[in-house]
Amino acid sequence: MEIYEGQVCQPPTGGNITIIVARFNKTITQRLLDGALAKLRHHKVYEHDVRIVWVPGAYELPFMADHFARDKDCMAIICLGAVIKGETSHHQHINRSVSMSLGETANRFGKPVIFGVITCETVEQADARSGVEVSKKDKTISPLPGNKGAEAAEAALEMIDLMQEVPCYREDFSPKAIFSQLFGDEDDADDDGEDDGDFFPTFPPLLRQQPVKVSKKSAKKATKKGTKKK
Length: 230
Known about the structure:
Blueprint lengths: L15 E7 L3 H17 L7 E6 L5 H8 L5 E11 L5 H20 L3 E8 L2 H6 L19 H18 L9 H9 L32 H14 L1
Parallel strand pairs: 1-2, 1-3, 3-4
Helix pairs in contact: 1-5, 2-3
């Protein structure tokens, strides 16, 4: 039986951690960022190994996450934001789009992308999830305030450690890799001494058949012959 579990007892080495923060509702997202940085410092992550990127709102988080996921030195991406319900259903579309896009980025690049966006119905709920003690009148609020930014940072550290433990099953599905698997990986099959690079066979386009022009006289003759045969 094989059991894999990430640990956060040792600081990650060999790369950096990117934190992308939405500026919208900054009073809340700033506290999320502070909680994430405090958690990283607690686990002895150096400041020069942390990269902070501010974007206008939560909707821009996936775009920037996809951008930094291409960095080979980036070990994990933490996305922080706060989407609070308003008078319309705008928040539902934002939450659905952001969560699905971040998941797709993580799967496409095989890199931990942590969803640290709090989705709340009231400002009081958002305050309670960003480390602020609020009134206990709202039963939807936990009596003990937490910080989702700190939780996201801890999840990132655990995933970084877990990715170093589990075996790698990712394969190269690029067109060149698939072509080499089908036809071999020899670069100079034609023995011309030159590298063919990204050569792929091309096929000529289908030839279009020119329409046959039929004159009016020939058409009348054809109809007359058809009537005589009957």
